[in-house]
Design a protein that fits this description.
heterodimer; A: mainly alpha; B: mainly alpha; 3 helices; elongated
Chain lengths: 245, 80
């Protein structure tokens, strides 16, 4: 394909996207208006199932099946990274974290923030149905917070406190149990991933039916998956070049 | 008040986005990308979308720049 043909194809595509965007923009409701059809559809269900955080109500109740799909995408990409980036046995031997001096202010900040971020991550996962957040956000907060061990401590310290095998099991278990929860609902005579548990009182820690259950399962899966993902990238960047073939 | 705040934050996002594009070195770009995500986080917060803001903060400002930095380090090899 010559440059001229490629430019023509690109311009054609760009023109098509521009036309579609223009059409979409002219049909959009004005910014900050009073017309909120989705809010009006979601709010009654959030109230019915005692889920103050409507976003979680959407993610883990109304369209819980979509979330299962999204989690499978995360799992698939983690498996992809694992199969592409996992160091070989020889490479693993040459992983040598460079001992660089860390400024004491950075160390102090890291050790101060470590318990705070881990606590915040747990809080965001556990209260996903009540306050902003949920399994995905909380899981990633947990994992990024855990890596403060690397920043203010050392790589071996992180590697010891990061059981990769268990993280892989946790990710698989999180997604598997998510699907099992859906099938349980199916067995009880409702639809797949329907909110079949008693919803309780709005605002209580144990309420909103399956919303917190699915949120916590997603939190476990995401935390495990992201820890495995970052571990592969970290190990790859720490392999000493030249010693391996 | 709200409009002024919104316009300020939108200008910040545009400025940070420009900074990402202008930064040439990918390793430095990871830092500007992280700052860009921070401004986006503030924008989402101002637009009353805390859930999305939290996702943007952890993924856009922390994980993605880290992956970019680690990849750049791997591709370039150890420092001489």
């Amino acid at each position: 394909m010559t440059l001229r043909v490629r430019t023509a194809v690109c311009l054609l595509g760009a023109a098509g996207v521009a036309v579609l965007l223009a059409l979409a923009f002219f049909k959009m409701p004005s910014f900050g208006g009073d017309w909120h059809p989705y809010r009006d559809l979601v709010r009654p269900i959030g109230a019915l199932h005692a889920t103050p955080n409507l976003i979680s109500s959407v993610n883990f109740d109304i369209r819980a099946l979509d979330t299962l799909g999204e989690e499978s995408i995360v799992a698939a990409s983690v498996v992809g990274v694992l199969s592409l980036l996992q160091p070989s046995k020889e490479e693993r031997k040459s992983i040598e974290p460079a001992e660089r001096p860390v400024a004491s202010a950075v160390k102090l900040a890291g050790y101060l923030m470590l318990p705070v971020t881990v606590l915040l991550g747990l809080d965001v996962v556990l209260h996903g149905h009540l306050t902003p957040g949920g399994g995905f956000q909380g899981g990633v907060v947990l994992v990024t917070g855990w890596h403060l061990l690397y920043i203010s401590g050392s790589y071996p310290a992180l590697a010891r406190l990061r059981p990769i095998d268990w993280c892989e099991y946790a990710e698989a278990a999180g997604i598997g149990l998510y699907a099992v929860t859906g099938i349980l609902g199916l067995g009880l005579g409702t639809e797949f991933l329907a909110n079949f548990l008693p919803t309780g009182q709005a605002g209580a820690l144990i309420s909103a039916g399956i919303v917190p259950v699915l949120s916590i399962l997603v939190g476990i899966a995401v935390a495990g998956g992201f820890l495995v993902l970052l571990a592969q990238f970290l190990e790859q960047s720490l392999i000493r070049e030249g010693s391996d073939s | 008040m709200t409009t002024a705040l919104l316009l300020t934050v939108l200008a910040l996002v545009a400025f940070a986005g420009l900074a990402v594009v202008v930064t040439g070195d990918p390793a430095r770009q990871a830092i500007t990308l992280s700052l860009f995500s921070l401004t986006l986080t503030v924008l989402f917060l101002v637009l009353q979308a805390p859930d999305v803001a939290l996702s943007e903060l952890v993924v856009g400002a922390a994980v993605v720049p880290l992956l970019v930095m680690l990849t750049v380090r791997k591709v370039r090899g150890p420092k001489p």
